[in-house]
Amino acid sequence: QVQLVESGGGLVEDGGSLRLSCAASGRTFSNTAMGWFRQAPGKERELVAAISSGGSTYYGDSVKGRFTISRDNAKNTVFLQMNSLKPEDTAVYYCAARASISISTAVTRWDYWGQGTQVTISS
Predict the structure, then answer these.
(1) Rounded to whole angstroms, how far apart are CA atoms 101 and 122?
(2) Residue-wise pLDDT tens digits, 65-100
C-alpha cells in the first residue's frame, strides 16, 4: 500500500502561482512513477503532469509551459509548481502513484490516490 497526502491548495487570483506537495509512504518512492490529476465539477479526471522514477516528465497540453512537476526522492515528495494560473485551472487536484517506474496517461493505470486538494482561481 502507498499513502499519499497532498498539501498546498488554496484560492489565488488569475495569473497567480501555487505549489502543491504530495508526501508518499509505503513503497520505495524512487521506484514509483508519480502524477498529478485534476477534476473539475462535471468533468472527467484528467492527467495534468507526471514524472517517472527516472525523471522523465509528461504534461497535459493545457498546462505546458505553466506547470512544472518535480520530485525529491530523499523526502519521498512530489511537487507541482503552478504558474500563470487561470480560472479554468480550478479543480480538485489529486496526487497519484503507480506501482511502476513508468508513466501512464490512462487514469485507470494509476494505483494509489491522495484525498485531493482544492485549487480555486478567481477571475
Answers:
(1) 36
(2) 999 999 999 999 999 999 999 999 999 999 999 999
